[in-house]
Amino acid sequence: MAAITAADVNKLRTMTGAGMMDCKKALVEAEGDFEAARDLLRKQGQKIADKRAENETSEGVVLAAVSEDGTNGKLVSLACETEPVSKVPDFKDLAQRILATAVESNAASKEELLATKQDDGRSLQEHITDLMGKIGEKLDVTAYENITAEKVASYIHSDNKKGVLVAMKNVGGADVATVGRDVAMQIVAMKPVALDKDGVDAATIEREIEIGKEQARADGKPEAMLEKIAQGKLNKFYKENTLLNQEFVKDNSMTIAQLLDKTSKGLTVSDFKRVAIVG
């Protein structure tokens, strides 16, 4: 059996980023064969991924990037199980790698992003699995958003666990950086379910109407009035939960739609994406 030296262990550690003891164990098991040892370490990562597949990932980071011309934005979230892991350099580096890969590949979906080959020929998902073997926790890209518009604004909350992309149209020649950030911050804070009432799905509308009827019925209102009362409550739901109809948190004398139009006539939001890692 080949003698495993400290230099061998350090070499494998440099190649893989795995811990010293894991590297030594892999080299011993592989009888000094570096490629076999690398495969063993990868299998270790897969074993951890399989074992912890059902574990909750309630910590991590959300990152965003907007192109230089401001017309495209990427938003990614890398989640882990515990807060200490979210602070380690290897985790942060992996999150940056994921964002950089998203920017470079312009992947259309999370699946396409994770399948993207890296410089070493392995997929992004394989790199994630490798780090699971080193860290010993489940790691998961919980969201990936890719949005293109006349102008895209982004915002990452101070806890680095919530982020937003805002797509704006009818920009004209206006400087929309400030209003774009304000709207993105609004979305983080107020969690709108859609742009306006036309974007609210039928199931949500039906549920809100039924809730309105039940509340009115509990208040002793006549059956003949329930539908009208429920519609009134639905309109209140639209005002509170659709972005363009929400009151601006920094100035509740105007709605978001009015804020945008005041900034530049006709300016509006065409889409938004909100990503959060929830603990």
Automatic annotation (TrEMBL):
Regions annotated as coiled coil: none
- Name the major location: cytoplasm
Please state where this protein is localized. Cytoplasm
Report domain Translation elongation factor EFTs/EF1B dimerisation positions: 74-276
Q: Name one GO molecular function term.
A: translation elongation factor activity
Write down the InterPro entries for this protein, in alphabetical order.
Answer: EF-Ts_dimer_sf, Transl_elong_EFTs/EF1B, Transl_elong_EFTs/EF1B_dimer, Transl_elong_Ts_CS, UBA-like_sf
User: What SUPFAM superfamilies does the record point to?
Assistant: Elongation factor Ts (EF-Ts), dimerisation domain (SSF54713), UBA-like (SSF46934)
Task: Give the record's keywords alphabetically.
Answer: Cytoplasm, Elongation factor, Protein biosynthesis
Q: Does the keyword Cytoplasm apply?
A: yes
Matches recorded under Pfam families = EF_TS
Family, as annotated = Belongs to the EF-Ts family.
Q: In UniProt terms, what function does this protein have?
A: Associates with the EF-Tu.GDP complex and induces the exchange of GDP to GTP. It remains bound to the aminoacyl-tRNA.EF-Tu.GTP complex up to the GTP hydrolysis stage on the ribosome.
- Quote the PANTHER family the UniProt record gives: ELONGATION FACTOR TS, ELONGATION FACTOR TS, MITOCHONDRIAL
HAMAP family (UniProt xref): EF_Ts
**What name has this protein been given in UniProt?**
Elongation factor Ts
What organism is recorded for this protein? Hymenobacter terrestris
Underlying gene: tsf
